[in-house]
Each structure stands twice: as C-alpha cells, then as structure tokens.
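Section 5: illustrative case.
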C-alpha cells in the first residue's frame, strides 16, 4: 500500500469517503463489551475483575508517588511510605476516569514503567493516555523501562526513579535481548519501477506505508499490506481525535 501526501492527504480523502470516525462512540462500545465479558467471567469464577489493581507500600499513608506497571507483575518490596503501585489489566479501551481515580489529587509524582525496549514513537500509547488524563493536575509524569529479568521493585529502584539526576527514561533491570532483525528486504522489480515513478512525481509528499525501510524497526511484517492498512487507519483515527478535541471554528 502506498500513501501519497498531497495538499489533501490520504487521511482527508478517507475521512471524506467513509465519513468521520466517531472515536468516542467506538471506545464506549468497546468498554461496554469489556464490562459485559468481565461481569460474566466474574460470575463463573466468583472473583471480581477490575481493570486496574493497586498495591500500597504502607496502608493509611498519604500517597505521594504513583507507579503504573505494564508487563511483569512486579512484587513490591518497597518499604518507603506513600508509594502506590497500579497494575492495569486492560489498556484500551480504558476510560480516563479510571486513571484519575487511581491517582490521588495530592500525588506529586507519577511514573509509567513498561516492559518494552523499542517503540516507533517518542512516547508510548499508555503514557500519552496518562498524560492526557492528568493534564489538569500539577504533578510530574515520567516513564521508564522494565528489563526482561525484572521481577521485584525495591527501595533502591524507587530511589533511582525519584533521583533528580536520573534519565528521562529510566531503565530498571537488563535490556531485552536483541531481536536481530534483518537490515533490508528486497522489492519485486515490477513494484520498484512504479515506486520510483511515484517518488519522482510526488517528491516529499510521497510516503510508502509498508516500505522496506521499516523492516529494521518493525520486522518483516512491516512490508505486509495489513501493516500499511493499520498505519493509515491509525492516522485516520488520530486525526479524528484531534478534530473532536479542537475547538469549533
């Protein structure tokens, strides 16, 4: 799939053809479906299923630091008072109110620790959801990476997170092993010819959504049409979000 960025981008074109995407309505529908499934499963297992669960370092102490943990279920060995660990069981759809309810108003620091090594954008999706939910709060929000061997969160880890000298993206534990992704992929000759024509014709307005250049960071699946469709659909949905968030003219 090829994406051409002209004066009217393909995103504009798709929205015009298919109609604007009601992201809010879609999220509400998915959330209702999740709640229905969770209720039924809770009935069968006799256990309450919550989208987020929390652990406190010392019950009854005022929370000053909230840490969202995605990936390994870290066993808390933190003895410092005022620390709350939040374990999301579902990331999307997750209403903003659930994030707000798990961050006390007096908390001054929020961390998002995720078990990942590479990400195609500067910030991850869940990190941006936390930032969006807490944009009216005056608290520091930072992110970190959990190593593949990290199974416990200790006082020394917390000290690293709270240190003003720590990096913007703190690494806790060993980095994930290298995937040894291929550095290049070949393109069939019949595709190379018309891709070259499109590049010459549209210059900087041309974007190849499943280009072989994406293979080193995304793997071989980056050349699949489904990958390109997913990228374009994501841009369509993101544009719809921005349209809904922007004030009407």
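Designed sequence:
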């Amino acid at each position: 799939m090829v994406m051409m960025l002209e004066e009217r981008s393909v995103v504009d074109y798709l929205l015009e053809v298919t109609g604007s995407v009601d992201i809010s309505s879609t999220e509400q529908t998915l959330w209702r479906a999740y709640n229905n499934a969770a209720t039924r499963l809770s009935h069968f297992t006799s256990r309450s299923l919550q989208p987020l669960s929390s652990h406190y370092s010392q019950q009854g102490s005022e929370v000053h630091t909230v840490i969202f943990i995605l990936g390994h279920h870290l066993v808390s060995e933190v003895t410092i008072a005022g620390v709350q660990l939040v374990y999301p069981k579902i990331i999307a759809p997750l209403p903003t109110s659930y994030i707000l309810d798990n961050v006390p108003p007096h908390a001054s620091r929020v961390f998002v620790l995720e078990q990942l090594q590479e990400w195609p954008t500067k910030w991850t999706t869940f990190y941006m959801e936390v930032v969006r939910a807490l944009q009216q709060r005056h608290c520091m929000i930072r992110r970190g990476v959990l190593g593949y061997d990290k199974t416990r969160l200790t006082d020394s880890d917390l000290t690293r997170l709270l240190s003003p000298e720590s990096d913007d993206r703190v690494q806790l534990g060993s980095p994930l092993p290298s995937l040894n992704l291929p550095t290049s992929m070949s393109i069939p000759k019949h595709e190379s010819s018309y891709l070259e024509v499109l590049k010459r014709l549209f210059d900087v307005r041309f974007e190849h959504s499943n280009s072989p250049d994406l293979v080193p960071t995304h793997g071989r699946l980056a050349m699949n049409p489904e990958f390109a469709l997913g990228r374009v659909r994501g841009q369509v949905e993101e544009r719809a979000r921005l349209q809904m968030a922007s004030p009407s003219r």
